[in-house]
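Tokens for F-box domain-containing protein. Go.
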Amino acid sequence: MQKASKKNKQAVASCKELTILPPAKKKEENREDFVELLPPEVSFKIFSELDIQSLCKAAMTCKSWNRAIENSDHLWKHHCLTVRAVCQREIDCDRGNGYSWKVTLLRNYWKSKVKHEWLSGKYSNIHSRCGLPEKIMYPMDADTWGEILEAELER
């Protein structure tokens, strides 16, 4: 048992050695985070150019980026209004209940993707539940299913 743990410790030590980076060059030592260097308006402009997936990834990059993104509800508003084109009732309801733009977007993003596919007729020719892709289905309320059913009946 002790031999196995010694081997594990040695393996971990060798992994650490592999990940040690060479000493930074002088130019890299002075490199700083643009969020900390630029005025907040400029950082906001840069982040506002990102799509939602990139914005979420950027928020996980470092603490300063996370603070800048998480504390700026306006960054999420644009994406939320895009989702509103498909989920108007849901977005308006969440906003009316006091949810932030970010929380509203997170609550409705995947629902809007699935709802859009249903409303565009992607699943119109599926004859049983087995034909539906399970992994991308998202739970929806009765009103949303009513909208989808009305669209199907009009086809």
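Residues 101-119 form the longest helix (19 residues).
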